Structures are given as C-alpha cells and as structure tokens.
C-alpha cells in the first residue's frame, strides 16, 4: 500500500542545514570567528558539499542575509496590510516583531543586521549593501505608516515624517543593542512605552 504523498515529510537539504547552522554561528560566535571548518563540524555537511552550494564564506553570509531579510519582510508585509489596526499599534507590532526575533537569536550586538555589519570588513560591500537596503526599506515602511496616520487624523498633521521615522528606527536598533548589552529585557518595553506616548501626545 502506497503512502499518501500529503503525509511525506520534506527532507531538509544540505544547503538549508548549512544556512541554518551558519546563521547561528555568525550571529552568536561571530562571522570573523567562524570558519568553514566550524560550519562543517556543526552541520555535519562535508566541505565538498558546502563548496558545491557556495563559492566561499561570504557567499554563505549573503544567502543567510537573504533568508533573514525575506523572513522579516514577510512579517512586516502582513502587519502593514492590517489597515483596520491603528497606525501606532502597527508600528509597535513591527518593532516588537523585529525585536523579539532578534532577541531569540541571541545576536552578539542585539540586532542581527548590526551584528553582521559590525563584523564584516569594507571589502564585503555586497553584504553591507544588503544591510543598508534593508534598513532603508524599514525606514520607508515607517514613513509610509506615519503618512497614513496623518491622513487618517491618527497623528498630528505637523508631525515631521522623515525625522520621526529616523528616530523610530534609531530607537529600535539602539534599544536592541542596549537591551543586549545591559542584559535588561525590560529595556525595550520602556522604549516602546515612551514611543507610544510620544506619538499619542502628537495626535490631533
């Protein structure tokens, strides 16, 4: 009797295993401190197999970044589409989602993108370009929400959009780093409460 194909468990490919292990090592041990041999040992995927899928360690890092960006983008897009939810709440949902995911990964610098950016040299320009683009896209996302909030009279019409978006992104990145450095998980909660108060204080 044949098994129903719907109940087959998809086997994780060697490429996926390598990316999962490499992501953990890059974010917790450090990109510079992680060698291909470390990835081989932790993943139990042969060096030959790794080089079949990736040209070098930087190529692995680029693929790790692509996965991270895709994962966060999916979550942010879902939150952005909930137009029945007030703008201030959606901004907080996005920041909490980004922060929770980052803290769960136990990154060296709190935020995965800050961690990887700090550990890659200027020669790794493709890596830095991806990180810059991600931060830029999140800034534009916050700007879009602020504009929506102003148009719905949920925010004060005089609220400066670009400056406020830059402040919110800075609070997220800086808050993650300080929460990690201080070991105080409540630090981000204080940031979110203050941010909500600031935005609500500038409502019409």
TrEMBL record:
The keyword Cytoplasm belongs to this UniProt entry's keyword annotation: no
Keywords: DNA-binding, Transcription, Transcription regulation
Entry protein name: TetR/AcrR family transcriptional regulator
Any one Pfam family match given in the protein's UniProt record, by short name: TetR_N
Top-rank taxon: Bacteria
Residues annotated as domain HTH tetR-type: 12-72
DNA-binding residue intervals: 35-54
Record's keyword annotation contains Transcription: yes
InterPro entries in the cross-refs: DNA-bd_HTH_TetR-type_CS, Homeodomain-like_sf, HTH_TetR, Tet_transcr_reg_TetR-rel_C_sf, TetR_C
């Amino acid at each position: 009797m044949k098994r129903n194909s719907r109940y087959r468990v998809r086997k994780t490919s060697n490429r996926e295993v390598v990316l999962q292990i490499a992501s953990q090592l890059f974010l917790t041990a450090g990109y510079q401190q992680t060698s291909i041999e470390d990835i081989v040992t932790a993943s139990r995927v042969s060096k030959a197999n790794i080089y079949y899928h990736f040209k070098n360690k930087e190529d692995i890092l680029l693929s790790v970044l692509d996965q991270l960006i895709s994962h966060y983008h999916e979550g942010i897009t879902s939150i952005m589409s909930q137009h029945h939810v007030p703008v201030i709440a959606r901004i907080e949902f996005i920041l909490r989602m980004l922060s929770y995911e980052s803290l769960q990964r136990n990154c060296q610098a709190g935020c995965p993108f800050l961690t990887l950016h700090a550990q890659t040299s200027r020669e790794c320009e493709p890596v830095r370009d991806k990180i810059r683009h991600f931060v830029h896209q999140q800034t534009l996302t916050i700007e879009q929400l602020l504009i929506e909030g102003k148009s719905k009279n949920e925010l004060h019409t005089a609220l400066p959009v670009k400056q406020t978006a830059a402040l919110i992104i800075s609070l997220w990145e800086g808050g993650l780093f300080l929460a990690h450095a201080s070991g105080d998980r409540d630090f981000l909660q204080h940031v979110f409460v203050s941010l909500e108060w600031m935005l609500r204080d500038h409502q019409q």
